[in-house]
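Hi D.,

Good news: the full-assembly prediction came through. Inputs first.
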Amino acid sequence: MENLVLKDVESYIDGFARFERSVAGNGWSWLSPLRKEAISKFKELGFPTTRHEEWKFTNVAPITKTSFRLTERATALPAGEELEKFTIPELDVFKLVFIDGHFTPELSSIKELPEGVKIKSLRDALSQERELLEPHLSRYVDLSDDAFSSLNTAFMQDGVFVYVPENTVLPEPVHVLYVSTGTTSPTITHPRNLIVAGKSSEATVIEDYVSLGEGVNFSNVVTELVAGENSHINHYKIERENRKAFNVSTLRIEQLRNSSVSTHAVLIGGALVRNNIHPVLDGEGGSCLINGLFMATGSQHMDNHMLVEHVSPHCDSRQFYYGILDGRSKGIFSGRIVVHKDAQKTDAKQTNRNLLLSEEASIDTKPQLEIHADDVKCTHGATIGQMDESALFYMRSRAIPLDKAKAILLLAFAGESLKRIDLEPLRVYLEGVVAEWFSSEHLNLG
Amino acid sequence: MSNTDVRVEELAEQEYKYGFVTDIESETLPPGLNEDVIRQISAKKNEPEFMLKWRLKAYRHWLTLKEPEWGNIRYPRIDYQGISYFSAPKKTGLESLDEVDPELLETYEKLGIPLEEQKMLAGVAVDAVFDSVSVVTTFKETLAEVGVIFCPFSEAVQKYPELIKKYMFSVVPYTDNYFAALNSAVFTDRSFCLVPKGVRCPMELSTYFRINEKNTGQFERTLIIAEEGAYVSYLEGCTAPMRDENQLHAAVVELVALDDATIKYSTIQNWYPGDKNGKGGIYNFVTKRGKCAGRNSHISWTQVETGSAITWKYPGCILLGDGSVGEFYSVALTNNWQQADTGTKMIHIGKNTRSNIVSKGISAGHGQNTYRGMVKILKGAQGARNYTQCDSMLIGEDCSAHTFPYIEVKNSSAQMEHEASTSKIGEDQIFYCKQRGISAEDAVSLIVNGFCKEVLSELPMEFAIEAQKLLSISLEGSVG
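Then the structure:
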């Protein structure tokens, strides 16, 4: 399978045939029909263009014009110390480290698990846990109009699999660290995550994307999260890869009766980031919180795409997305709430607030409501503005230098989003990461 | 309660109030569309050469276009060859009212606009369009005194070709969209208005027009120009006779406001919406756009859309001049099987431009209501400001409401806010009213009128009253 180079649609399809052969014999043959269906879907769809309504503001040409090499299991592992800086202090976690998309047990630590709980790489799960995977894997993500998720499904080979059985609480969060080691030629990975939480269970999963080098990596991620009846799930996504990385991710959440899911995203890195979040509230009394903070500078491009579907009555959903854009960066927020016909008593709210810090930065926001039931409460709000001049003046009149005053204001703005993170050590850590972003060379606050 | 039910039933079956067909001789082209038809229209209207050239150019462009499908609306394919593109009452160019076909006058009286009385009515000049050709224009002298030109579009083409050449297509080019291209090829008539520098138009200008001839699509063209410092307020209101075939209505309205000028354009749209099973009704596919070309110019759109089987329109403003202001106030009501996909487009180009959008959508029955809007703030639009509010109200279980705003900001000094909400009509409010002896029907009408007040208050007085009545009539039968 060496030198599998992927670029245009044809090369992906050719590459797929070779990929299939190479993974044959891993005990994954049951996946084959799924993969074949996905690749034929991809063949039919091709890469989206800006003429596609859902991709109107994001041109994926940088991705389609790059030749990517499908990564193999690294031979030389980075030293543990190199990954030290990505550790969240004062937080005990089940740690899974993926180097260039491949699970690396040497760098991971999965301590003793409560009975019935499974936390392992998808690679292992595919061959060992077929009966747990089969009812869920790729049953939720909608490939009908999604070329990237189709590609992921066709090429999936590793990722994280978390299974929490009924009435079980995961004692510590799962920290999944995706590391790209940054080689000379651009690489592509297809991380595939599946989180299945049983009835009345609780779990926290942190997806963390980082780079070690300055090489180009394209992470094409799909995460499926199934929240069983009465379960409480917290999900975090941290995107802090280098400024050349591409990251297209789809988080599909399936929520059953009375389940409660919160998903938080902090996006700082990447050249082109597309963040799809698609919860479906398919059981009465479910509630969903979608919280996000995206900060871009230079020529970064961050596209956030929410689709919240209310299928059942009496569900609540809340979306809060905050954007800070500097340099020549471009931010996009597209939030759509669909209330299906029977989803009476839905309560859905959406807020998108954006700060533009420079002349060249731009933001496109597209909040949408699509309501087919009548007894609902739905609101959305979007604002775009700048830092409050009078607040800056107030601080400067009290001898706070301009750059510091600006950083304080930005931190307050970002804090609105970060304060919704319940996991205290993670919140403190992320506040630090964000503060560093404000004070570092990222921003020209002078 | 049973009492109310009976009444509601009666009301639901009430026929469209303004449905009748006037039987007058008219000159109609056979259905179909080709270059010859366009030549004939142009010849019948005695147009100068350049206009025919423009029409043909637009037609050839139209042939290359595909009917747009992105709208959140559903309707059977329109057979463009099955439409007659010209229909005119025979005797035209009359000097006094005595010469007007008495039957026509009667029609106007049924509509509540007796021309004889119009002159006495305070400050309203009416340019009544009957099907496609303007029959009579009143108050011309009063307007001429201050130098305002207000005449049918076709007359302007003959009399002021220079103005037409300068301004027509300057806001909505014939290449703009499918229906604008079609309109540019086959447009018949409507109003032309020019308010010269420094003049405040002494009266509200208005046209009432209706589709009359069977199977005649209406392709009106309106052009309003306000020169430096001028002010004009233009009203349009319309009703159409009841019939079964769907009728196409694809008008184009262009507004141009120069330095410090203000144009206020108000619409009450009450075309036949189809019967309670969704049969028949008008397709209203309209392109309306204003250009704030000068500094501190101001264009304001107000619309009350209660009629039509399908409403598809986005009155917009191009805010080109520094400090110019665009406004959009809209009430869109859909009942029975009506569909509306409407909103606005505000394009901020000049510095310190401001726009304000207030949209109220009401869906009842199987009605489907979509707000689709775009606010675009371009790089040079320093200090641009936008405020958008769109609220939807749902009455009944089978209706739906959608909101699709697009916001694109390319300037960091811009400020914009967008708020939207969708909710059911307040049960406790209805309860409160009923408790005080107000019927459910009246309560709904009361609540809806309150919901829309912000928009209705933007309308000129007499229109505001008519709009309130319209809302009540259109909602009849929606509760029970």
